[in-house]
């Protein structure tokens, strides 16, 4: 007998925004500075950036040299009229550890319990491992849904819209923004894009702009998931932003 379709209410849609550990390379501990210089020497550097310049431009994508700034979370619910509602918000805190503990609490108290499934775009390559690594660095025990070390593949409840779109083709990366465009889903890239998060945080000091961008990425992600499963996107009036 075929497996039943995954219930939307059991899926938590997530997106993370990350920044470099420090605003400047010189602020890193000397031990990490030396290790970054070794790593930077192996990275593609067409613009011939110095290790310090490359740190500001690219360190955020590496969990060893970056940190989680905010986490967008969203899920589907039915209102009293039986209409499908999508609720979405951005988690923020004064420290990364506090933020990660907040996110862990969100996972562990989700109504789906053991059926909770995470969904992210490029989540298997970025969001999920990044969150796990930063939790461990901060001394946080991994929540069940993220702790995959001893699980069989079918016991890992992680969805990835990029993986859906690849259909087994692993040669190319397709951005969330491109998929939103081809499926005619309104874009989240009205103010900034991922490459500008470090600058927006450290130079412009505008965390609100990043939080809004992160939240809207979750909306696009959920709409894309619906499209990839042959479902109608949710109406804008049924999206609840916190």
UniProtKB/TrEMBL annotation:
Annotated EC: 3.1.-.-
UniProt entry keywords in alphabetical sequence: Exonuclease, Hydrolase, Nuclease
Record InterPro entries: 3'-5'_exonuclease_PolB-like, RNaseH-like_sf, RNaseH_sf
Molecular functions (GO terms): exonuclease activity
Superkingdom per UniProt: Bacteria
Signal peptide extent: none
Stretches assigned to the Predicted 3'-5' exonuclease PolB-like domain: 82-229
Protein name: 3'-5' exonuclease
